[in-house]
Amino acid sequence: xxxxxxxxxxxxxxxxxxxxxxxxxxxxxxxxxxxxxxxxxxxxxxxxxxxxxxxxxxxxxxxxxxxxxxxxxxxxxxxxxxxxxxxxxxxxxxxxxxxxxxxxxxxxxxxxxxxxxxxxxxxxxxxxxxxxxxxxxxxxxxxxxxxxxxxxxxxxxxxxxxxxxxxxxxxxxxxxxxxxxxxxxxxxxxxxxxxxxxxxxxxxxxxxxxxxxxxxxxxxxxxxxxxxxxxxxxxxxxxxxxxxxxxxxxxxxxxxxxxxxxxxxxxxxxxxxxxxxxxxxxxxxxxxxxxxxxxxxxxxxxxxxxx
Length: 307
Description:
The protein is an alpha+beta fold. It folds into 2 domains: about 25-185, no CATH class; about 190-300. Helix content is about 40%, strand content about 15%. The chain is built from 8 helices and 8 strands, in the order H-H-H-E-E-E-E-E-E-E-E-H-H-H-H-H. A 4-stranded antiparallel β-sheet has the order 1-2-3-4. Strands 5-6-7-8 form a 4-stranded antiparallel β-sheet, with helices on one face. Strand 3 (about 100-110) and strand 4 form a beta hairpin. The protein is elongated. The termini are far apart.
């Protein structure tokens, strides 16, 4: 009898395992009872599921065109974003071309099996964030402890293609509102104070210490670490952007941007980005453009090229 009971138990386990192994993503409920099975699916399973669903979806931001492959999926996870009984499939697309832009896509399946989606565009989104500069925290976090996850999305400030200025990437916060995620960075000052600004302030202080030592050793000489100076400017722009967004200092960066036009170490590209982002500073914006044109003309003249 014991052997018979053991055999029945083993057969039951095998049947369950076979059912789970043979299941498709669309065949089971996306809830806690199936979370282990859901997490056992790989990119090929997700691609196959999305390909079967793409015709039913109103939006196709990834341009899958019913030909979805694992290359379209950078990474994915199952997350209980809304704090309810259902889990969501959170997918990060691969970069679109060389720009680094990509999408975070949230797929939700209701109790009737209907799939809906929401997409958020960002700059090189990675679920675990960026560990190197500029530091970007991980994407999915419950920042205010209400049981519903916020999303941290890296976005680019300004357009600096063709310049020597590093990309200005800063983390925006999206919160859940009426079933959709909306940008709400201004409401999460504590997040920036604890997870972002300390890194930026440390980076800024570190460069300034190195620059002070360099100037002490060679008074009056230009800084050797020019790329480091560009990284410093990017960190300053990012910090000041955040201070403006959270309302701590609506004019953060204004004084520095003006110094980048009239000071001894001009950086009109950085000044342009700041004035453009702040808005309502047309006179300053035009002054930055004139300084940029002057620099371009000086570089052409130095290279023996006339306009």
